[in-house]
Design brief:
The chain has helices spanning 32-46, 77-93, 109-116, 141-146, 153-162, 168-174, 186-197, 203-213, 215-223, 225-234, 240-251; strands spanning 2-4, 7-12, 17-22, 53-58, 99-103, 106-108, 120-124, 128-130, 166-167, 179-181. It is of the alpha/beta class. The protein has one domain (2-183): Alpha-Beta Complex (2-enoyl-CoA Hydratase, Chain A, domain 1), CATH 3.90.226.10. The strands form two sheets. It has a seven-stranded mixed beta sheet with strand order 1-2-3-4-5-7-10, sandwiched between helices. It has a three-stranded mixed beta sheet with strand order 6-8-9. Helix 2 runs antiparallel to helix 9. It is globular. The model has no long low-confidence stretch (mean pLDDT 97).
Length: 260
């Protein structure tokens, strides 16, 4: 096991699967330190030719509360957001085996965007998934790019424009989640599925197959996300309400919207 401040690696499937646990719990915030640690871990996995699955999970009871709100403030967001989006593109460009997001508890904001960038998204039945950014006066650029690959335009709009999270079974019905396991049984289900469906396959073929099937995510992250990132940094962050919403959250008070 190799531990770093924001990531712990473990082994599954007799060493043929890499479990990457986001941390530190309980929030497992997707901040710049975690982004860097995860990028390094994925590069390591890409060099290991016999690994047949990557499982991305949160340490403790939750997947992730989301990105660091502090890092969304002016002066920090200009570095944080491009680095996070580079990680999402790296997930598509590296020669990796399939990546499965194993979601327990809260999976919100940047954590949900990270899960959407995976090939498979499995959840326990008490999980809650969503993008609450609109309540802070901002929007989720990566989710705006990735959600329409999994759901209808209306469902994507409802999630992004209201910030309301979905329960695991609701997300399953909409096609966001691929499989729901009973509470406490998610990793047993992953182990059983991996042994039945992956261990007998070629790791080289799995990497090639993953590259072939992931072209929609690769294209949308390369072609659409840069414009959404520009809108966020050059237009949204100039509004009064974006700065007010973030400050209100950090100050633990209700925002005073001025609609500008």
């Amino acid at each position: 096991m190799t531990a770093v401040s924001h990531l712990v690696r473990k082994e599954l499937l007799d060493g043929k699967a890499a479990l990457l646990e986001l941390g530190p719990p309980p929030s497992n915030l997707v901040d710049r330190q975690m982004v860097g640690a995860l990028a390094d871990a994925l590069r390591d996995v890409a060099s290991e030719k016999d690994t047949k699955l990557v499982v991305l999970a949160g340490a403790g009871e939750h997947f992730s509360y989301g990105a660091s709100v502090q890092e969304h403030l002016p002066g920090e967001v200009e570095q944080m957001l491009p680095e996070f989006h580079l990680l999402l593109r790296l997930m598509q460009s590296l020669p990796l085996p399939p990546i499965l997001a194993a979601v327990r508890g809260r999976c919100l904001g940047g954590g949900f965007e990270l899960a959407l960038a995976c090939d498979l998204l499995w959840a326990e039945d008490d999980a809650r998934l969503g993008v609450p950014e609109i309540r802070l006066g901002v929007f989720p650029p990566a989710a705006a790019a990735l959600l329409p690959l999994r759901v209808s335009a209306g469902v994507a709009a409802q999630m992004i424009l209201t910030g309301e999270p979905l329960l695991a079974f609701e997300a399953l019905e909409h096609g966001i989640v691929d499989f729901v396991a009973p509470a406490g049984q998610l990793f047993d289900a992953i182990e059983n599925w991996g042994r039945e469906h992956l261990l007998g396959l070629s790791a080289a073929a799995l990497r090639q197959g993953r590259r072939a099937q992931s072209w929609p995510r690769r294209n949308v992250l390369a072609q659409e996300l840069p414009e959404l990132e520009r809108q966020y940094l050059e237009e949204l962050m100039l509004t009064h309400d974006a700065r007010e919403g973030l400050d209100a959250f950090l100050s633990k008070r209700q925002p005073d919207w001025e609609d500008r």
